[in-house]
Design brief:
The complex is a heterodimer of chains A (about 290) and B (about 160). Chain A is of the alpha+beta class. Chain A folds into three domains: about 5-50; about 60-170, Uridine Diphospho-n-acetylenolpyruvylglucosamine Reductase, domain 3, CATH 3.30.465.10; about 180-285, 2-Layer Sandwich (Enolase-like, domain 1). Chain A contains twelve helices and 14 strands. In chain A, helix 11 (about 245-255) runs antiparallel to helix 12 (about 270-285). Chain A is globular. Chain B has about 160 residues and is an alpha+beta fold. Chain B has two domains: about 5-80, Ubiquitin-like (UB roll); about 85-155, Orthogonal Bundle (DNA polymerase, domain 1). In chain B, about 35% of the residues lie in helices and about 15% in strands. Chain B contains five helices and five strands, in the order ββαβββαααα. Chain B has helices at about 25-30, 85-95, 105-115, 125-130, 140-155; strands spanning about 5-10, 10-20, 50-55, 55-60, 70-75. Chain B has a five-stranded mixed β-sheet with strand order 2-1-5-3-4, with helices on both faces. In chain B, helix 2 packs across helix 5 (about 140-155). The longest helix of chain B is centred in the last third of the chain and has 17 residues, at about 140-155. Chain B is globular, with a radius of gyration of 16 Å. The relative contact order of chain B is 0.15. The chains are: A alpha+beta (about 290), B alpha+beta (about 160). Chains A and B meet through helix 2 and helix 6 of A and strand 4 of B. The complex binds flavin-adenine dinucleotide (FAD) and FE2/S2 (inorganic) cluster (FES) (2 copies). The site of one FE2/S2 (inorganic) cluster has 11 residues of chain B, from loops.
Amino acid sequence: MIYPEYIQPVSLTDLWGKFPQDKKIYFLAGGTDLFNYLRDGLIDASSSCFVDISLLKQLDGITEESENIRIGALTTFSTISESGLLKKYCPDLVAAAKVLGTPQIANRATIGGNIGNASPAGDALPSLAAHFAKAEVANSKGSRLLNISDVFAGPKKTTLANGEIITAVVIPKIKVKAGFTVVGTFKKIGGRKSHIIAKASVAVFAVVKNKSVDYISVALGAVGPKIIEVRNISKILSGKKVSPELTEKCKDEIRKIASPIDDFRSTAEYRQEVICPLFEQALNEIVKD
Amino acid sequence: MEKNIKFILNGKEVEVTVHPVKTLLKVLREDLGHTEVKAGCEQGECGSCTVIIDGKIVNSCIFPVGQAEGSSIITIAGLCKEGELHPIQKIFIEEGAVQCGFCTPGIILAVKVLLDRTLSPGDEEIREAVSGNLCRCTGYSKIFSAIKKAAVYMRTKK
Ligand SMILES: Cc1cc2nc3c(=O)[nH]c(=O)nc-3n(C[C@H](O)[C@H](O)[C@H](O)COP(=O)(O)OP(=O)(O)OC[C@H]3O[C@@H](n4cnc5c(N)ncnc54)[C@H](O)[C@@H]3O)c2cc1C
Ligand code: FES
Ligand code: FES
């Protein structure tokens, strides 16, 4: 077996100094995607370098800032699914983490890897899009914030330059009116009940009092080349009570904006068929009397 | 580019000189002779290669051995104490929760981590704990009842 070059920096500064010239850089976090690509020959080992970032402890963990919640890129989905801070501010992301992979996968899979892998079926991504989260991207010269959707150039392609690393995800905290609560959930359809890569998925995040909606944000996964934010749903529901008529209007918006494709996992027709019921299920779960 | 990598395996320090991107599964089986760790799908799907690293279950088939440096790893062989099987192992045998046995090491390690956390797991918690381990033989119901029995046994013995 041919292995790629391998380096294991111990700090971010150490990282920039160590990059080899002329090699394609792959950051090795949990390796749950990378190992499969390596085995399947999707990575040309001889011209690649795996930069193992697992020792960069400053990239691990969830912290509360005055305006934001900050999730380090190395934070695993098992940590996310147990986080009290995220249950409070991003219940939809917690719901996604709970159905992401098996327990063995969730112990390894990181949020940075989910973004870096740039699959439109990545389970964290609809939630992050629904929260208008930003990825903090760093290179040797400094760092910048990118909208999650701007990290994606297309399926499995990012807009990051070779060697640019995602250091964290920054999620703005929502303001909650007195008497209202933050709710959110994530739903996906796969080939079996649990632990499966999505054929279609939806994240719904809202601030509600029973059926009255103060704020709502919805994003769809796996029904287009990128994650799709359904912005018009907030126009339909904000300041209103959820009703069957308004739910139908929301579904019309989803039908308009979803642009699924056929691939090895499913067909465009199936995805188009299931995405609206999936949304309705999610909405009914979190908005109720 | 091989590297010296040291970790604790079933309580004993071991050292290997291998490429850090080699999978932990291959290192355990090929370099250290620990064939009790089973190679199934080798793509993170089936859980037969499960080991416990620093208290957490992982699939060793997609785990770079370079990240094992300094950690403590437990395989199914590490559950026996002085030649005596662990209660979970004994109860799996008594309950007929083992047929071909290929999935068993991984499942028992997943159960070990569950029962380390709680000796009163709910049904859903049990199902979730072993949901990353596929069994092609038993249909899971005997595995499920063995886990319930092991929990009760370990709880009353405590
Ligand atoms: C059996 C199995 C089941 C799975 N189930 C699911 C599922 O249900 N839902 C789901 O969404 N995914 C699933 N996955 C895919 C995978 O686990 C996730 O995409 C995971 O989040 C990847 O994280 P990682 O840390 O393992 O990434 P790695 O494999 O280490 O890296 C993945 C990619 O991201 C890049 N990368 C990693 N970290 C960074 C960073 N900090 N900055 C820039 N780039 C980075 C790498 O270079 C690489 O291209 C599954 C995978 C397997 C093997
Ligand atoms: S052999 Fe590792 S998960 Fe199947
Ligand atoms: S006993 Fe044969 S796979 Fe489980």
